[in-house]
Amino acid sequence: MYQSHLLTYLGIRQVDAVIGPKQTPLERVREIGAALGVQINAQQSSQLQRAVRLLERPILPQGHSPGQERLAALFLKNAPEKNLADPRLAPAQTIVDAAMQLARDRGDSALSVTAQGEAARQRIADSIRTGSTLDADVGSHAQESKSVPPAPDKGRNR
Asked: At what angle do helices 138-147 and 90-106 cross, to 10 degrees?
């Protein structure tokens, strides 16, 4: 299977193999494998190495790309001032700042404001990773999650 995928990356869609009616299934598989090997050996090594690298590259979920992953990591790593200076990250940092300001305006404690800011940063980074639109209502998400009552204790009180 690996050989056929490798040839597909090289643009080869068919191979010539001699299959006879009196061959066993194992002999047929061996014949096809040998034909794939002949085609692979006929390729230039630079093209072959490139195809191997393509096969070994990780496959990201739909909507993800390495560029988006790096941008999200950069957003989380940078200080807010640096994010505001970067035109790609400035809108995201503005949303996080607005969520933190909303928490301050509500009179939340400094610890709560920081926690809500970090939660907003994580949500924005997830949006960047998936390539979805930035959610301008990050503050309302923090408010909704705050108003949810705690789950009842499910201890062994029976």
From this structure: 40
